[in-house]
Amino acid sequence: MAENVTLGDRLRIARKIRRLSVAQLAQKVAVSPSYIEKLESGKRKAPLSLVLALAKALHFGVEVLTGQPYYGEPEAEDGVHAVIPELRRIMLCYDTPDEAEIRPRSLPVLASEVDQVSALRRDARYAPMGPLLPPIITELTRLTLEGRNGDQTKAFWHLARAYRAVNSLAHKLGHHDLSATALERVRWAADRSRDPLMQITAGYLVAGAMLRQGAYSSARRKLLALRGELERLQPERSFTDDALAVDGALLLKLAVVEARENSSDRANDYLQESKDVARIAGNRDSLAYETSFGPTNIRIHEVHAMIDMGDTEQALARLAEWGPSSGGEWMPPAATVGERSSHHFIDVASAKLTVGDRSGAFADLQRARKVAPNHVRFHPSVRETTSALLRLETHPSNELSIFGSWAGLTTA
């Protein structure tokens, strides 16, 4: 089932289905016809903002252009999609679960398992995480319905975390309908947890989904409203450490929204404000409400924003500027959660390919794979970058060919 169908191939097919000429499509997304031709031929790689714009102009879901979800050889080896049908059923029956043959385990035991799931989610280890989710969610749901020993709100709090893991799994694997359903369940459980910061975190996740669908103005309004609510809850900037981390995460998401709309000044303003929040919090990397925040994540977002806006050379120059005095480029510390650091390497690989640094691009793909193989193997940008490298190399190295096969691409 391995195939080398690229975004350009899918774009050409989708354009013809909609009976649009290259010039007509180019006009709809405000680029030149030659740019569209280069995308369709594979000579240019589209930034995510343009992919979203193209999908909207063609009246297709973005997954039609990215080709998600991916199966083939990666699924045969990893089996990460196998849990999806059961998760769909559980998400649908969230308030009327199946009858249980045995009583659910105690909340402390289930909370410990949610901690394990959350750690796997942060490190993008989806294959081992997936099978753990159905039983944990089912048992937590039972506890919320029974409301024994005053544990109901606590059970809802942990249930919101488990639903978040479903959202991440579904989103990363390309099951966007399940991801959207899981987000609604996160909000539902967060509201019943009676924890304002969990409720704000749920809203933050919804804003991220809006961003992924190209609903930039809605995402912006959502994030600004959440910041206002955070200020109302903890006035005069007397934020707790957790509130500071949540506020910092909101600011970084706002920076990405502005970058997607190519508003560099506003993106930089939010990045600067996030640095101010990080300083108040002691300039240390932290984890609050499943969200990482601190100097490392700010740098990752700063590079991501520049790449989003097409400032590829500036992004790579910034990495060199931050690099060690002995030379080389800055990389996230080893302790950085796998999902964040692998996403960084995927972004940088794409940027290096854009400036013609093929060996550098492949090196970053390999770094990403080492950190979070499940994330990398099913990531659209990885497949596009790898396909381009295979196409550009007259005689691909054995190492690149093996990587392409591992990612589910033919190398012949």
Explain this structure.
The mean pLDDT is 92. The protein has four domains: 7-66, lambda repressor-like DNA-binding domains (434 Repressor (Amino-terminal Domain)), CATH 1.10.260; 82-194, no CATH class; 196-310, no CATH class; 337-406, no CATH class. Helix content is 70%, strand content 1%. α14 (216-233) packs antiparallel against α15 (241-260) and α19 packs antiparallel against α20. It contains 23 helices and two strands. It has helices at residues 7-17, 22-29, 33-41, 48-58, 62-66, 72-78, 84-92, 107-122, 126-129, 133-146, 152-173, 176-193, 196-212, 216-233, 241-260, 264-280, 295-308, 312-322, 338-354, 358-371, 373-377, 380-392, 398-406; strands at 286-288, 291-293. The chain has a two-stranded antiparallel ribbon with strand order 1-2. It is mainly α.
